Amino acid sequence: MPTFTYNALTSVGHNVNGEVVAEHERAALRELKRRGLVPLSLAIAVQASRRRALLRKRAKLEDHIRLLNEIAILIDAGVTLNEAVDIASRSASFQIFGDALTNLGRDLRRGISLPEAVGNNIRTFPPYVYQLIEAGNATGSLTSGLKDAGLQMQFDDRIRKDIRSTLIYPVFLVGMGIASTLFIFIFVVPRFATMLKGRWELLPAFPHAIFATGLFLRDNIYGATGLVVLLAAIFYFLWQKASFRMQLLELVIRLPLLGRFFVEAEAGRWTAMLATLLQNRIPLVQGLALARNSLQVGSLRGRLVQVERAVRGGSALGTALEDYGIFDETLVNLIRVGERSGRLAEMLKSAAAFAEQKGRDRIKRVMALLEPAAILVIGVVIGAIVVSLFTAIASINNVRL
């Protein structure tokens, strides 16, 4: 017979954990009731160990989105909140959260509110998710708050993937160019130097530098490799720090073409976030603070702080954004129209869609220019090396020995 692990309350309200052997789950529940225990959670011991193993893995963003959507769908179908959480905790898809969902259901049965219970047990959601859950719980539109939180997380994930896919191709091209150049320096140039039998030292400055570099890399291949590995490790260590990523992003947004894409992506994230918060009846000033915290570019966050202060002082949002020159004129005009018509949240959604589409169009143009430019630069570098090698061979007979 299988062994079940349980978490239960005694008759005096004490929380206890233990194991019980029974033929099936119902029999295990009957045994717990016979002992005078009120079961809070029950799982087969093998499943519990599997849950602990899965807990070592980290729940991904997709797991969080799916959890919010499933609970919202179950509530829409007429299932109570407690039952929806219990069903999710027993689902194999959400075992990645470990005991968090089980503890969440236990807190709900104890009378703890959903926003507080979620905040106590699942702390890996973005900050705005907890605000949306709290707003939905307070206004009686919990399913709307959960769905909007899931949609906003999907939007954020889409922006991240767009940025990641944007950077993959340039990094690949640069990596291939560096690899090709190193291959020529390490394996090709030394062979030509051997053919010239030391006479390459009498060549002009540029060919001489090419040969000297190639021989140096060949003779110090292990040291050069160790230096590259060390630099990669340092970069990886720095990348783990949010401050370094922010400084790097500040440099990227100053690039002539690619920088505008990042700014427009941030604009889309900010407007979509603010629209979602306002639709869930979160006050404008509080929504501005939450939307600002979702941005990754520190300079934009700093200017949005000034916008918040202006709004607190009675200024219109569109006017404040225009005064500090944060986003482009089209987006600001949409916000102004929304303020005048009383449909700010709806116009913010339209502005977010506009910014997202504009960013994608811009990145298509950047990629269309980037490919030939990268090929041209790599070709010029490799071509210069090859030309210097053949120039050395052609001119070696003219070198005075």
What profile does the largest beta sheet have?
Answer: 3 strands, antiparallel
| Strand segment tally | 3
N-to-C order of helices and strands = EEHEHHHHHHHHHHHHHHHH
Beta-strand content bin: 5-15%
As laid out across the biggest beta sheet, the strand order is 2-1-3
Distance between the termini: 93 Å
| Regions with little confidence, pLDDT below 50 for 5+ residues | 48-56
- The helix tally amounts to 17
Rg is 31 Å
Gross morphology: flat
Mean pLDDT: 80
SSE class: mainly alpha
Roughly how much helix do the residues carry, as a percent range? over 70%
Structure, explained:
It is a single chain. With 401 residues, this protein is mainly alpha-helical. The protein has 17 helices and 3 strands. It has a 3-stranded antiparallel sheet with strand order 2-1-3, with helices on both faces. Strand 1 and strand 2 form a beta hairpin. The longest helix has 55 residues. The chain is flat. The termini are far apart.
Question: Which helices and strands occur, and which strands form pairs?
Answer:
Layout: E1 3-9, E2 15-21, H1 25-34, E3 38-44, H2 45-55, H3 61-76, H4 81-90, H5 100-109, H6 114-121, H7 127-139, H8 142-196, H9 205-219, H10 221-239, H11 242-252, H12 258-279, H13 284-293, H14 298-312, H15 317-324, H16 329-341, H17 344-395
Antiparallel strand pairs: 1-2, 1-3
Helix pairs in contact: 3-4, 3-8, 4-5, 5-6, 6-7, 7-8, 8-9, 8-12, 8-17, 9-17, 12-13, 12-17, 13-14, 14-15, 15-16, 16-17
Jot down its keywords.
17 helices, 5% strand, 401 residues
Structure described in brief:
This protein has 401 residues and is mostly helical. Helix content is 74%, strand content 5%.
